[in-house]
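Morning, I've got a small favour to ask if you have a moment. It would help a lot if you went through both lines with me. Thanks so much in advance, here it is.

***
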Amino acid sequence: MSDLFDEPDDATPLEPEERDGLLQSWVTTRADLNEAEQASIDKGAAWARRRRGRDMLSEDFVRLLHKRMFGEVWAWAGSYRRTGRNIGVGACRIPAEVAQLLDDVRYWVEHDTYDPDETAVRLHHRLVAIHPFPNGNGRHARMMADLLVQQLGRPPFAWGGADLTDIGEKRRRYINALQSADRHDMAPLLTFARSA
C-alpha cells in the first residue's frame, strides 16, 4: 500500500472524493505529493509577490491564492470544502466565516487595533480555525499572513524556519502555538511566527 495519503496524526485526512482530485498521475508517494505541492506553492508565492499592493483582503483573493498555490496538484484547489472535518467550521458556514474574518482584519488595519505582526498572526489563526479548504489550510494561512504583514511594512515571518508539513519538533511547536491561540493566548504563535 502506498503512503500517498498517510497524514501526520495532527493533520486532517482527505475524503475519498477529494483524493480523486489529484491531477498529477506521476504522484504515487507522500514524497512525490510533497514535491508536487511545493513546486505549485512556489509558483503561487511568486504570483502573489507580483501582486503586492493590491487588495488581498477579499474572498476572491483568498480563493485565488489557494488555487494558485495548489492548482497544479488538486482539481478542487481554490474551492471551499464541502465535507465535515475534525477541525474547522461546518462547510456551510465557510463563506460567511471567511467574509467576517476579512471584515475584522480590515477593521484592525484601519483602526490600528493590533501591531502589524499580531494583525497578520490573528488572520492566520482564524483562517486555520475556519479551515476553508480540503487541504493546504496551514500553508495557505501562513502565506496570507506573510502577504499581509509585508503589506503592513514588516518582513515576512520565518514560521520556525522549517517545513511544517513534516512531523517534528518545529511542527509540534507550531501546533502547540495554534492551540494556545485557540485559548486566546496569542503570544506563543507570535513568537513562533518570528522564530527561525
Remarks:
- The chain has one domain: 16-194.
- DSSP finds eight helices and no strands in the chain.
- Residues 16-194 form a domain with the Fic-like fold fold (CATH 1.10.3290.10).
